[in-house]
Queue: 2 jobs
Job 1
Amino acid sequence: MYIYEIENGTTFKLIEKRNNPYAETMQHLRTLDVYELIQDCAVTISAHIGKKDMTRLEERGMQFIFKKGKLNRH
């Protein structure tokens, strides 16, 4: 996971790279474990995330930006 700071609303500055120990696991609710690693972040940029996980994270204040494709939550 790459952690960036947004400067002046337009420039991204790399702050650090964080290891995701849950990347290869299939454990139940692992997204919430990953959230604990990035809870100090305001926005998440992700290629894939499940609808239920999005809802759980949005309830905790996380925002999402998707790399590709449309977001259809209906």
Job 2
Amino acid sequence: MTVTQLLRGKPARLITMPTHETLAKAAEILARERIGAVVVTAPGGDLAGIISERDLVRAIAKDGPAALTSKVSETMTANVTCCDPGDTIDDVMAWMTDKRFRHLPVKENGRLIGMISIGDVVKAKVEDVERESADLRAYIAGT
């Protein structure tokens, strides 16, 4: 299975926010959308970084409630690893596990087209295993 196939099962809407917004706004978006990370975009729409729940918690632990007034650009992860639609689920799972991140933006020809999470990847792997198991049972049963 590839990232393209995984993206087909997700809503096409990609939630983003600009670099000049505050961490309070990021927290509002994360809570409202029930997501764990937001893509941060530079003027013109290019990928500038990613802000996650983990980033917010670390900022608040360091600076207290005042952190919420700081700009997203001051806290976001700027050096973001991205994947390609043709990458396999096994490959992205290995990267996410090795690098210890849970969200991975997807770029095609330099353009941001989506985001996948470790939850998406695990769900796809479980579905593959269940499908394979059902096929094997059917084969063994001769149906």
